[in-house]
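User: I'm curious whether this sequence folds into something compact or stays loose and floppy. Could you predict its structure so I can see for myself?
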Amino acid sequence: MPDITLRIEQRTQDGRQHAIQLALDRPNEPCLTARAEIEFTLSAQEQGELRWYLEDYLIRPESVTAEHIQQIEGWMKDRGEELYRKVLRANDDTVDLWASVRNHLADLRVEITTEVADAAAIPWELMYEPKSDSAIALRVRSFVRVQSDPSVSFVKPPDTDELGRVRLLYVVCRPSGTDDVELRAVVNQLLQGLGEDLDRFDITALRPPTCERLQQELTDAKEAGRPYHIVHFDGHGVFADLEKTTLADWAALLSTVMLKANSKGKHGYLLFEHPDSDDKMRPVSGDQLGKLLHDNGVPVLVLNACQSAMHEATASPEDTDNVHDEVRAIGSLSQAVVDQGIPAVLGMRYSVYVVTAAQYIGRLYASLAKGRSFGQAATEGPARQPRTLGGPAASPAAGLVRAGGVRGTTAAVVSGHHPKSKLRNCARNPVPPRRCSIRFRMARSM
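Assistant: Here's the prediction. I'll summarize afterward.
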């Protein structure tokens, strides 16, 4: 059956009240529409427990009782079912719409549209159907978030090289220096994760990992007629009002770049290394990064934050006020990048460990090499994670965040459309065996 698309448009009114517009597009069938007004939010405690479950429990499953884990998985399932009822069982129209598609989930693409500021307001990936006892996000063909500002044209995927390889720029930012995971440890895990599909990629590591060097590298690649297909950022993000932090000096520059009335207040930023500043880091907004990628013809951005080797996993959820800000950092930044015309962005909302991230990213890139659309490749990743780590057996309630027993691989997928036409070349053209390594390009001497 051809692809069918369910569009979910979310308009948040006060942080808790949401107007939801549904539209179901099917080949040779009239478009079905429905509307629901809902109230939904996660409490501070739930946000803290979700973060702990996805991050710390992965590394210390023996530190808690089975009853404690069942309690957390229980409320995750309950809240997921609540979201399902409020949206897909809200009224006769929403019930009819879902009934017409629920038997074709393997062919369904779900698209979530929100404003940038509200990208993390509703955890749509939690939505759980009681009848099938499963998370909807893991059953559909692809589950993505799409562009909220369609006035910006999308970047067209560039051609691959004569061998059909995908060009990937790998950016690892470690502003904390020795207190963070070293570059080569991450690179080795990435190479292992790609496995036999490694030869389908031409990978360059950006050194030094500064915003200035990124701009120069992308410009040089475009001028040489070989723009990158993918930029992969491995580092840290923040969701903050810069004027209230030690990074306040960057606020004026960013407000000029963003040129928006709402540039004040909290926004999501990636932290690039910046050796000349006191904090050794430079915040880069989603608008700024999106424009840089768009101007240099890069259609795909992958974001992930691997936990520091110095991080100490806690044995129980911490009650912190800013847990949700960690989620908003990647969620809002990813949406802001898409709104600058980048057709595919994947942002991991929670910090995961190197091995887990490499497994997921390796499967993502392997699927792209085989010609999958970006949304499909990103959605397939969690469902195919092997049982390689300890902990209780996977339960239906944990399926969203712990596919096959491996936690921490949930991603917030943001995809403007299907950027697959040119990337399929690498699947059609066989690549001869070769020894593949990552090139470390150093900044030119001034």
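Summary: DSSP finds twelve helices and 17 strands in the chain. The chain has a mean pLDDT of 74.
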